Amino acid sequence: xxxxxxxxxxxxxxxGFYLPPEESPHQRTFxxxxxSRKVHPDPVFLDMTQDAIARIANAISEFEPVTxxxxxxxxxxxxxxxxxxxxxxxxxxxxxxxxDAGPIFVTNGKQLAIRHIQFNGWGEKQVNTRDARIAEAVxxxxxLPLLPTPLKGxxxxxxxDGHGLLAAHESSWVNDNRNPAMxxxxxxxxxxDAYGADRMIWSEGVWGEDITDYHIDSLxxxxxxxxxxxxLPAEPDKSDPFHMAALDTHDALEAAGLDVDVIYEPDRxxxxxxxxxxxxxxxYVCNGGVVAAQFGDKQADAEAVxxLKRHYPGREIITLNVxxxxxxxxxxxxxxxxxxxx
Length: 342
What we know:
alpha/beta, L-arginine/glycine Amidinotransferase, Chain A, four-stranded mixed β-sheet, three-stranded mixed β-sheet, 27% helix, globular, disordered N terminus, protein-arginine deiminase activity, hydrolase, Agmatine deiminase
């Protein structure tokens, strides 16, 4: 039976291509090597960031093949830090966020294609001369169709279950820095078509307070049909726009009839800065494993592992210290992009 045959026909929208669930089998994982000194002016912190990316790639490579995208001139440095299991491709990069700038692979059950949601540096907030071309370069390297969309945005800004349901924050899409000429209804229709879905849950999100305009993948993740794992503050601060938006998203997911499982943010984490992203929800599911962050709060870290075991039984849970990514506003899921098996 093909993947397409195993899904409801309603999932196969538009041209018949759809994005399978992240937990379905992968051919490989794609990642990006961070190098730009315009993005990372501190050379010491850039070294720390590269080390974190290498450790994520090496952990995933124990479960499935990993391809690291980097300009040829950056391969020697990367090779010293990467496992021999990680393959390097000569595709130039600036930053590490492959979930956003990288290829979005879709399938019709018979072949793969790349859906082209155009990356523009989160609304031209960051240099993206190289990163904006990555999806096209990967499509050319793999000789895959590049399927156009009218959208500018990032895959980290929409969560999908692979069974016809999407969720997103309006702030990451209905925003003049991405899609100024499109209404929410037009954006929704384009997203549903791009992902091969038929239903969408919106909540407002937060405009202009972080580079992503509050990507949903650092807050809530689908773990199967009708199931969501969401990372909430244990004691919400009514003056914090992210706390209030997180609660709104929780309520919208529950109102949609989903089974919403809450895990709480760490309290005693290593990095104390207010803008540090301490998200247990920003994990990555690979073949046989889940790679997630730990933040140094033993109780909260253990509770997060227990939640991941509940939602992904039979998979090995690997936790890593990736604090540099949290300081940059993201996490492990933001740094990865899956290529589905067909």
